[in-house]
Amino acid sequence: MSEKLSFEPPRGMRDFYPEDMVWRNKVFGAMRESAARYGFEPYDSCVVESYELLARKAGEEVGEQIYHFFDKSERHIALRAEMTPTLARMVAQRQKELAFPLKWTTIAQCFRYERMTKGRKREHYQWNCDIIGEKSILAEVEVLGCACDALKRMGLKAEDFKVHVSSRKFLGELLEASGIGSAKHAQVFLALDKRGKMPDPEIAAMLKDGGLSDDEVKATFAIMDTKDCSQSPELAELFRLAELAGFADCLQFDIGVIRGLSYYTGIVFECFDTKGEFRAIFGGGRYDNLLTTIGGEPTSAVGLGFGDVVVTELLKARLGGNAAKEKAGVAVGFMFDAEADAAVKLAARLRAEGEQVDMALKPQKPKKFFSHADQSGAAKAVFLGPDDVAKGVARLKDLATREEREIAL
After folding, report:
1. Are residues 152 and 296 located together in one domain of the fold?
2. 8 Å CB contact between 376 and 331
3. End-of-domain residue from the set 292, 319, 346
4. pLDDT at residue 388 above 90?
5. Domain with 314 in it: what CATH number?
6. Contact call for residues 106 and 75 (beta carbons, < 8 A)
7. Which residues, listed in sequence order, are joined to residue 128 by a DSSP beta bridge?
8. Which of 60, 85, 229, 295 is exposed most, by the fewest CB atoms within 10 A?
9. CA distance 254 to 241
10. Terminal Cα distance for the chain, rounded
11. Which residues fall within 8 angstroms of residue 273, CB to CB, at 6 or more apart?
């Protein structure tokens, strides 16, 4: 006898029922609208990539975290874990033809096999906004401004989140000034990126394993207490421009933001809810060397990755579980089969006029129809009975105010 089939999706994956799609549409809609307002052009790509491309990205346990396999022609391929390597490949492919700077955006479904925790699945959608081919700090300003704008469009206020901003270049300068040479910086960045996830004694052990002396370990922890970024021209300029752009209240300096991936070269950032209840909402930074790692020409770039899982959980917590379901459109129903034709004609007319219409598929009693109309999310409703059709006039009801007005059939 065959084993009973589970109705659950594979572990770490998600189904999106209509009530889930309401939230996804709210999040994606804000992302797309903000990207368009900030002049980002949409792009997309295949969900399957060559394993070699993804494996070239340093600093991650690629073999353990990426879904990879051999196809029927023995090609080693993988499901994308994020969009940045694909973006680099696409730009490198047409680097001689493209007009820089590029401002590109996408919402990509990504897959990563890893231990699941709060806010982390094995499948998620990630919004990417990248500016490629521009060295100016204005690139960081545009990317960060766009992300903050999206969060506000979703319904959050500046006091609900903060973007923690730092600079790997600035941190490197502080390390150099403390006598810690550049040869040790990669190990320092890797260890410090674990801070908050591991206790400090374990971080210290990692630093020592990386070749740091006891004094250098002590100096590294002292640097992590830095509160002033005025010595960094690029950070000072970023905060000045953010003030002019109107979103400086969303930013704060945090030397502890490292971003463990080795391709980041300058300003880096991570966004968190101010209550500290969730994982990072988004993260990113400047990555001026990524294209060269896959054989492209050196090109400056700034980008962010913004997942849908954490922000949806945050929105539900701050706005309420039903906040995404906005009342819209018209429900059209009828009492007997004899009114069905009139209902079809009315629904067609309302749709032609631009209305969103949910039409009943069979006769119903008024109480059942209006109950369904309320649950369906309609803003208005029309119910046709024999008298309405005979008179050629129906009543359009506002389901929130219960006010009615007559409309001709």
Report:
1. yes
2. yes
3. 319
4. yes
5. 3.30.930.10
6. no
7. 106, 305
8. 295
9. 18
10. 59
11. 160, 161, 281, 314
Q: Which amino acid is at 206?
A: M
85 cis-preceded (ω within 30 degrees of 0): no
Report d(CA 190, CA 66) in Å as an integer. 20
Tell me, yes or no, whether 193 and 95 share the same domain: yes
Q: Is 168 in the same domain as 255?
A: yes
Instruction: Report the amino acid identity of residue 116.
Output: M
DSSP 163-219: EEEEEHHHHHHHHHHTT--GGGHHHHHHHHTTBTTB-HHHHHHHHHHTT--HHHHHH
pLDDT tens column, 333-372: 999 999 999 999 999 999 999 999 999 999 999 999 999 9
**CA distance linking residue 189 with residue 203, whole number of Å:** 11
Cβ neighbours of residue 242 under 8 Å, at least 6 residues apart?
A: 141, 144, 145, 248, 250, 251
Q: What is the mean pLDDT of the chain?
A: 92
Is 8 inside a domain boundary?
A: no
Question: Would you say how long the chain is, in residues?
Answer: 409
The average pLDDT across 133-162 equals 97
Q: Identify the domain containing residue 360 by its residue range.
A: 330-408
- Which DSSP string do the residues of 210-223 spell out, in sequence order? TT--HHHHHHHHHH
Q: φ, ψ for residue 77 (rounded to 5)?
A: -125, 170
Residue 191, both tokens: 């260890």
Whether 23 and 312 have beta carbons less than 8 Å apart is answered as yes
pLDDT in tens, 190-224: 888 888 888 999 999 999 988 899 999 999 999 99
Regarding whether 277 and 387 lie in a shared domain, the answer is no
